[in-house]
Amino acid sequence: MMIKNILLITFMIAMFSFAVYGENQSMQLSISQMKNSTWTDQDVTYSIYIGTITNTGTSTVYDATITPESNFNIQRKSDVWKLDLVEEMPKDLQHAKLHFPQYVSQIGLAFNTSTTFGYITKGTEPAVFSICDLVFTK
C-alpha cells in the first residue's frame, strides 16, 4: 500500500513538472528590439528595427516560431532579414509566421547566446512578437 502511495506521489510530481515545463518553454527565448533609423517617403513614415533573440534557458534551441502580434507592417518579404518565413507565400505578410534561418538551426542557440534579425515597418513603433513551438533537438 505504501509503495502505491509513493508511486502515485512520484507520478503526480512528474506530471506537474512536465506541465510547468510546457507552459514556460517559450520564456526560454527573449526578444529585444532597437530602432535603427526612421524616414518619411510620400507622407508615410518607415522605421528599421534590429531585433535580438536571446536564449535565457538552459537547453539549446534549434528552432522556434516567431509570430508578429502587432505593428509588423512590412510590405514585402525582403523587408525582413535573418529570419525565414514558415510559409513560402503567406497570405498576409503582417501576420506571417517566422522561424530561425537554416544557419542558426544547424548549430542552435545555446544558453546565453543570441541571434539578430531586422525588419522595415510602416510607422515608428516596434512590432510585438510571440514565441512558440520551440525545437530542442536537431
Q: Which features characterize this protein?
A:
alpha+beta
Summed up, what is this model?
With 138 residues, the chain is of the alpha+beta class. The protein contains two helices and eight strands. The protein has helices at 2-24, 102-107; strands spanning 29-41, 44-55, 63-70, 80-81, 84-85, 98-99, 114-122, 128-135.
Quickly give the structural class. alpha+beta
Shape: elongated
Query: How many helical stretches?
Result: 2
Which blocks of ≥5 consecutive residues have pLDDT under 50?
16-23
Number of strands: 8
Q: Overall mean pLDDT score?
A: 86
Percentage beta strand: 35-45%
- Give the CA-CA distance, first to last residue: 43 Å
Q: What is the alpha-carbon Rg in Å?
A: 19 Å
Query: Can you write the helix and strand succession as a string?
Result: HEEEEEEHEE
Please give the order of strands in the largest beta sheet.
1-2-7-4
- Helix amount: 10-25%
